[in-house]
Amino acid sequence: MTEERTILLVGRTGNGRSTIANVISNTSKFKESDYGISESEGGQIGHFRLKGEEMIYHIVDTIGIGNNRFTEKETLKRLTNAVIGVQNGLNQIFFVISGKFTREDVEAFTLLRMIFFGEDIGKYTTIVQTKFPYFQDPEKRRKNKEIMMNQNEDVGTILRSCRRLIHVNNLTEKEDFRLRARNDCRAFLRNYICNCKDIYKPSNLGEMNERIENYLAERNKGNDKQWQINQLMNENSQLRQQLNQFTGQQRQFNPFNTGFF
Ligand SMILES: Nc1nc2c(ncn2[C@@H]2O[C@H](COP(=O)(O)OP(=O)(O)OP(=O)(O)O)[C@@H](O)[C@H]2O)c(=O)[nH]1
Ligand SMILES: [Mg+2]
């Protein structure tokens, strides 16, 4: 029987998912974003087989969470389609972060857990940190992981729940014209996914649309609250200005104002 490996790439926009897809598949089929505009529209799949090997690899690139081209609702719809596409089994989810594990990454991970996968997401998830220049230095990788673990409770909890944290630095041809870094990362990533043998069938896909609607409704409530807070802060600052003007005028017309203050 032919062995297969399916990897789902998820994460915040611009963190390097399409680049990882190119590096693993050794193509340039996946569009890498260059100009600060989110590129991936979701659902792009690469299939390939290595020369002389039976194993078939499927790499599924997804739309970036927080991308600047689609509404949140549209983004979630496209993510839904990608997840439905792999519901029969995937070997690993690569949650891609870039440089640091940010608050937005925590929110994105939480969203994926709440809406699409459920509590067991971590067992089948590898955190891939891109743009890590010391990816070949075990001591630097260990130190980086230790710092991240202690960064804050949310990040520590996510990292502990996941299979592993791995590091890459997929430099472009311009940065590394022999593409040595990409070749090294490719060898490492292929070996890594070859060892992701367990098959995960996301079991939390029922009522996904309902969960998305509830999530968006909660978000809107939050936005309304934020809007009210902004309004109050604006009013507050206007009142302060008026008060300052008023007290300034008082001082000017104060007959006892001796000018020593
Ligand atoms: N130096 C360096 N640059 C990287 C690395 N990974 C990605 N990049 C660059 O970062 C930019 C964004 O990478 P993409 O792979 O397009 O990111 P994405 O997550 O697919 O982004 P969207 O699809 O637009 O949401 C591109 O210019 C890449 O060349 C890395 O490990 N090191
Ligand atoms: Mg992309």
Automatic annotation (TrEMBL):
What protein am I looking at?
7133_t:CDS:1
